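Researcher: Please translate sequence to C-alpha cells.
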Amino acid sequence: MSDWRSRAACIGTAQVVFFPTERKFTSRTWSQARVLCARCEVREQCLSIALAVDVTEDRWGMFGGMTPSERRYHRRKLAREA
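Model: Translation complete:
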C-alpha cells in the first residue's frame, strides 16, 4: 500500500459506504462517504488517481469526494479548459 493510502480517512470503513449497493444512487446514499472524504488529508491524491482512470471503466464508487457522474463532469470541464 502506498504511503498516501495508509493515511486515508476511509481506512477501516465498510466498503458499502463508498460502493453503495443500490441501483439508483442518491445524495443520501453518498452522505457518509462525503463526510469522510471532506476531512481526509489525502483526498486530492485519491481524486487524482480516480480521474486518471478511463472514463468507460469509472462507473462505481466515491473517490476523492466525487461520485462517478461528478468525476465525468469534472473530466469534461478539465478537457474544455485545456
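Researcher: Any highlights?
Model: The first helix runs from residue 3 to 6.
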